[in-house]
């Protein structure tokens, strides 16, 4: 089966053709970062307009690179949510038009299910498994008891990890998106400024990063007020160490408590070298199998949407053509057993 998948939830316009839910025939990603960078973040109206400009070209390119024709497609998958509503709409309208014109099924797909199932494109997922989702808008521990069954066992109560990275980077006057810059600064640091860790209640798998962000801002302000020079690298390293300590500790505890066979690291922040290294060594030490998609499949792309949509194609769980963009689409409700 061939799925044409479309992703436009934020600032990447992407289309991909996937065979059998596993094989990437094409995965075209057009990033808008250069347009948003001067605003220090994603501007929703500009994002929608850029998606409109590029979506048709990107879809054509994906089909061309896959070496197939539109007639070969079995279904059209598209991100239904979460994301920016105006951005989602562009992908959804394109997907509906194609599904209607080709008379093939439409599969509205959950963006975070996509980040999780990016792993299936390169690895073999085994259940039950635990996914640590770390992205620009999400920080969650998701238990998958079986294929396509999502249960959120922990989530952030305020900022997402990627958001915290971007805000800290902004305070240090680094360009958007700041995650990779903080990562690089931290890697080259000789010292670390000790910062607090938000563990929350002892049995909680929830996260909180806004206190840490405030602590970073306090260090920056105090140093400036005293007229001292700020050791930015040490601050970046202290911030990163705090984030990683909490993420790794909670993820491993969740793996043990729920008897997960694998830990999956997913989302844009999975590109973080410090996090990858720390998780790899802790999982090795504790005999836990760790799956991490390659960098290009961690950040937003349509191939991961195709991989998740394949779960629904296999069971003929399709969306209606009146499907709406849902900026707050719940992950658990997208589970295969919840389909109605
Ligand atoms: P969501 O998936 O929650 O809707 P999103 O799609 O905008 O949000 P992603 O594209 O998955 O998020 O990830 C983008 C985020 O990843 C940004 O916040 C960016 O700073 C962060 N990021 C990317 N690379 C790194 C890195 N090396 N270290 C830390 N953060 C990183
Ligand atoms: Mg993005
Ligand atoms: Fe994402």
UniProtKB/TrEMBL annotation:
Q: Which InterPro entries match?
A: ATPase_NBD, Gcp-like_dom, KAE1/TsaD, Peptidase_M22_CS, TsaD
GO cellular component assignments: cytoplasm
| Primary subcellular site in the record, as a coarse category | cytoplasm
Print the keywords alphabetically.
Acyltransferase, Cytoplasm, Iron, Metal-binding, Transferase, tRNA processing
**One MF term in GO for this entry?**
tRNA N(6)-L-threonylcarbamoyladenine synthase activity
Entry binding sites for substrate: 133-137, 166, 179, 183, 272
Q: What subcellular compartments does it reside in?
A: Cytoplasm
* Cofactor(s) the protein requires to work: Fe(2+)
Known EC number(s)?
2.3.1.234
Keyword Iron tagged: yes
Biological process GO annotation list?
Answer: tRNA threonylcarbamoyladenosine modification
Binding-site positions, Fe cation: 111, 115, 300
Keyword match tRNA processing: yes
Catalytic function, reaction form: L-threonylcarbamoyladenylate + adenosine(37) in tRNA = N(6)-L-threonylcarbamoyladenosine(37) in tRNA + AMP + H(+)
| Chain's role | Required for the formation of a threonylcarbamoyl group on adenosine at position 37 (t(6)A37) in tRNAs that read codons beginning with adenine. Is involved in the transfer of the threonylcarbamoyl moiety of threonylcarbamoyl-AMP (TC-AMP) to the N6 group of A37, together with TsaE and TsaB. TsaD likely plays a direct catalytic role in this reaction.
HAMAP family (UniProt xref): TsaD
Listed NCBIfam families: gcp_kae1 (TIGR00329), T6A_TsaD_YgjD (TIGR03723)
Q: Which family does it belong to?
A: Belongs to the KAE1 / TsaD family.
**What protein name applies here?**
tRNA N6-adenosine threonylcarbamoyltransferase
Species whose genome carries this gene: Paenibacillus soyae
What taxonomic lineage is listed for the species of origin? Bacteria, Bacillati, Bacillota, Bacilli, Bacillales
């Amino acid at each position: 089966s061939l799925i044409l998948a479309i992703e436009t939830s934020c600032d990447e316009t992407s289309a991909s053709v996937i065979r059998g839910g596993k094989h990437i025939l094409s995965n075209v990603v057009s990033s808008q970062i250069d347009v948003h960078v001067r605003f220090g973040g994603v501007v929703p109206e500009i994002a929608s307009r850029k998606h409109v400009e590029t979506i048709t070209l990107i879809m054509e390119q994906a089909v061309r690179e896959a070496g197939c024709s539109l007639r070969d497609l079995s279904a059209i998958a598209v991100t239904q949510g979460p994301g920016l509503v105006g951005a989602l709409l562009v992908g959804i309208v394109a997907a509906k038009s194609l599904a209607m014109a080709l008379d093939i099924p439409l599969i509205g797909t959950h963006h975070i299910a996509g980040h999780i199932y990016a792993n299936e494109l390169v690895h073999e997922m085994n259940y039950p498994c635990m996914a640590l989702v770390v992205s620009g808008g999400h920080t969650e521990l998701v238990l998958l008891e079986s294929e396509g069954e999502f249960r959120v066992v922990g989530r952030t109560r305020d900022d997402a990890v990627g958001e915290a990275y971007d805000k800290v980077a902004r305070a240090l006057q680094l360009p958007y998106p700041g995650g990779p810059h903080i990562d690089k600064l931290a890697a080259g640091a000789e010292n670390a400024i000790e910062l607090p860790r938000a563990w929350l209640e002892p049995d909680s798998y929830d996260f909180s990063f806004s206190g840490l962000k405030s602590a970073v801002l306090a260090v920056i302000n105090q140093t400036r007020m005293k007229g001292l020079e700020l050791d930015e690298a040490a601050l970046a390293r202290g911030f990163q160490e705090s984030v990683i300590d909490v993420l790794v500790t909670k993820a491993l505890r969740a793996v043990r408590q729920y008897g997960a066979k694998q830990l999956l690291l997913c989302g844009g922040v999975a590109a973080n070298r410090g996090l990858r290294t720390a998780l790899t060594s802790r999982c090795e030490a504790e005999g836990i199998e760790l799956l991490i998609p390659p960098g290009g499949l961690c950040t937003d792309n349509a191939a991961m949407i195709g991989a998740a949509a394949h779960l629904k194609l296999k069971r003929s769980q399709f969306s209606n053509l009146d499907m709406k963009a849902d900026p707050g689409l719940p992950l658990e409700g997208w589970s295969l057993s919840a389909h109605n």
